[in-house]
Amino acid sequence: MSAQARRRYVALTDGYLADVHHAKTAHGVLRYGRDDVVAIIDPEFAGRRLRDVVPSIDRDVPVVASMREALAFSPTSLLVGVAVSGGELPPKFRAHVLDAIDGGLEIVNGLHQFVTEDAEFVARAKTSGARLWDVRKPPDDIALFSGEAYGVPQIVTLAVGSDCAVGKMSVMLEITAAAIAAGALAEFVATGQTGIMIAGKGICVDRVISDFVSGAAERLVLGVAADTEYTFVEGQGSIIHPAFAAVTYGLMFGSAPDVLVFCHDVERKTIGDGEFDVAIPDLKMLCNLYESTLAPIKPAPCVAVALNTRNLSAAQAQAHLQQVQAHTGLPTDDVVRFGGSKLWHAVRAAGERTPKWLALRQAARG
Amino acid sequence: MSAQARRRYVALTDGYLADVHHAKTAHGVLRYGRDDVVAIIDPEFAGRRLRDVVPSIDRDVPVVASMREALAFSPTSLLVGVAVSGGELPPKFRAHVLDAIDGGLEIVNGLHQFVTEDAEFVARAKTSGARLWDVRKPPDDIALFSGEAYGVPQIVTLAVGSDCAVGKMSVMLEITAAAIAAGALAEFVATGQTGIMIAGKGICVDRVISDFVSGAAERLVLGVAADTEYTFVEGQGSIIHPAFAAVTYGLMFGSAPDVLVFCHDVERKTIGDGEFDVAIPDLKMLCNLYESTLAPIKPAPCVAVALNTRNLSAAQAQAHLQQVQAHTGLPTDDVVRFGGSKLWHAVRAAGERTPKWLALRQAARG
Q1: CA distance A60 to chain B (A)
Q2: B242 CB within 8 Å of a chain A CB
Q3: Is B64 on the interface with A (CB under 8 A)?
């Protein structure tokens, strides 16, 4: 299937559909992807509709128990739609994947464990003609960071945050959508498996050899469409995450942002929800730490705070947003609930204070 | 050749022998390695002795022009002794490596470009029986960081610094030697190719997939001999190096140090000696940035400054050391020139202020 053809996905979430952490790949594609999702395989919720299980996603998709049932919806591709710790294929997923391969479906896999390196999958795909695509496999020819990223004409915004899985990708997608709605030429840059499935391109930076992470991030910001004015880079991890900070820092330094948007889940009190004994510090202090870290290299201010308030009532959420806005002194919003417009304005205003902005205006007039 | 057998190395530096940056692998093994080095191949300096070309290394090794001449010294192994940017084998090294393979010598290679993935090398080695060892190839089974490193009984010291190639490995080796000389049970932990060649074990953390860098560092500190009291971890890069900071941060968070030793080359004014337009900031400010970065996770103080003053006179060096010591308020020395004793005392004093120390004392009384 060509990169431009529209897929008809079956999303495989067996047991994880209602789990916002582990099914974030499936949820992201369902919420933001350009492709169709014709069915979801999850026996636990079979017979229900997506919106009954995950009310926050406004797509009507049937949930079925097996690949056999899903085939009735004429799918082209199977989306392996979970992101479990360690990145391995959950054992019960294996039979579904084999069924899909035997049915000739393309397998689109975002896990660390590659389907293209699994002898059984490869052999069965050879027989059926199914295509295997490991989204996390980075290109072979990533160069070391060169500094060329410092010269890109676009105003580059990077999502940073307090932890993994606080909503950085969604924040960048929502602000990109708001920028485009406001008439700006904006592009979302994907750095993780879900983002790549949504955007159709990108590099999983956490899968890149550590020496080359900054080089991978640089390549991504150099690769946006030439007429782009605002680049929105999907962030990864957190500078205080003991397991994944290497990825975060490599992305920060390699993408050479002009502007940061700080993302946080209001319910998150410790890194990895207690996986490590690391408390998330005061948000203003953490924003300052991001700025201090970049200051010796290429300074970039935190210009907005994006909060994930999904389990608060609308009134509670607004009160919380007000409180964080007062405390940090930065425009604060939940862009998934209330749209990306407010934070887009904050980014645009900050962009207009960078030296790049005048050149962009001149190019636009050109 | 077994891990315990003593090698008789030929070091290959063709053109780089006098270059402290690019020949740092060869220099490190010559200065600190437990193995013999029976000859150096470098046509530019052929006919001279090592100490005439690199006076700071107190080993007497002949320099020859070719592998053919080197074979007269009955070597067991060829050391590929350069570390060039990008990590590729310099083209003129190829013929020397082939000659060594044909002579049945083990090839010990620290470059990114693996000899075990070069079809010609592999075929010729198959014929001659030569062993090919890519020191930079990390193990296949590195786990994600688990937090287990927080529980190691040893007092862990990590070398940090202002840039790459300022002497972090040598500093840790000299302080380890001083600790052992003072009767402590100390182990050096190697994280780069030269260190691994010196120590006989370790992981090249910069070659590990970025998600797993912290896990690799954790595995290294968990892997020291059980009776070790002080672990000295070779540092990598700098938190202000735009290309390599991902490695630095992963190593910092994964090794979970109790104590930091800050390393700097007094002649270095910008990152990569001008490769990037990033000035090295005030050293005290940079020490503070290291501490601020670790503070939210596991705090570790900078307890000493190790300066590389190799091109200053002894009097100039002493004046500079005094000045930096007064400015930072930290014990400061050039451990390569003046020995590791002073900084070892600073580490030991800091170790005695950690909660681990009492447990170590009790275990020693055991």
Answers
A1: 35
A2: yes
A3: no
What range does the domain containing B188 cover? 148-365
- Tell me the average pLDDT of chain A: 94
> Could you tell me the two tokens for B356?
């681990």
Size of interface A-B (CB pairs under 8 A): 137
Interface test with B, best of A210, A239, A273 (most B CBs within 10 A): A210
Q: Can you tell me the distance from the alpha carbon of A281 to that of A122, in angstroms, rounded to the nearest whole number?
A: 46
Task: Please give the structure tokens belonging to residue B361.
Answer: 């004392």
Please compute the mean of the pLDDT values over residues B148-161 and round it to a whole number: 97
Collapsing DSSP states into helix, strand and coil, what is residue A302?
strand
Mean pLDDT of chain B: 94
B38-47, B86-95, B150-159, B165-174: the lowest-pLDDT one: B86-95
Under an 8 A CB cutoff, do B244 and A293 touch?
no
Q: Does B37 touch chain A (CB under 8 A)?
A: no
Q: The tokens 């084999």 sit on which residue?
A: A98
pTM strictly above 0.95: no
Residues B251 and B335 in one domain: yes
Residue A3 lies in a domain: no
Answer yes or no: do A243 and B145 touch at CB < 8 A: yes
Judged by a CB distance cut-off of 8 A, whether residue B158 touches chain A is no
Cα B39–Cα B42–Cα B48 angle in degrees, nearest 5: 70
DSSP state of B210: G
* 3-state DSSP assignment of residue A271: helix
Domain edge (last residue) among A134, A163, A189: A134
B205 contact residues in A (CB cutoff 8 A): 210
Which one of B85, B144, B286 has the shortest CB-CB distance to A243? Answer: B144
Nearest to A211 among B206, B239, B286 (CB): B206
Q: Is residue B139 part of a domain?
A: no
Same domain, A104 and A165: no
Distance CA A310, CA A289 (A): 26
* Whole-number pLDDT of residue B366: 61
- Tell whether A76 and A169 lie within a shared domain: no
> From B243, which residue of chain A is nearest by alpha-carbon distance?
A145
A160 touches chain B (CB under 8 A): no
CATH assignment at residue B27: 3.40.50.720
Residue B68 is assigned to a structural domain of this protein: yes
Using CA atoms, how far apart are residues B277 and B361, in angstroms rounded to an integer?
Answer: 48
Q: Are B41 and B11 in contact (CB under 8 A)?
A: yes
Position B3 confidence tier, pLDDT thresholds 50, 70, 90: very low
pLDDT per residue over A66-100, tens digit each?
A: 999 999 999 999 999 888 877 899 999 999 999 99
Contact residues on chain B for A205, CB-CB shorter than 8 A: 210
A335 Cβ contact list (under 8 Å, min separation 6): A170, A171, A174, A175, A178, A306, A342, A343
pLDDT for B157-207, tens place per residue? 999 999 998 999 999 999 999 999 999 999 999 999 889 999 878 999 999
A5: number of Cβ within 10 Å: 10
CA A19 to chain centre: 16
Query: Which of B206, B211, B240 is closest, CB to CB, to A247?
Result: B211
Residue B114 CA to residue B134 CA, distance in Å, equals 6
Whether chain B has a CB inside 8 Å of the CB on A147: the answer is yes
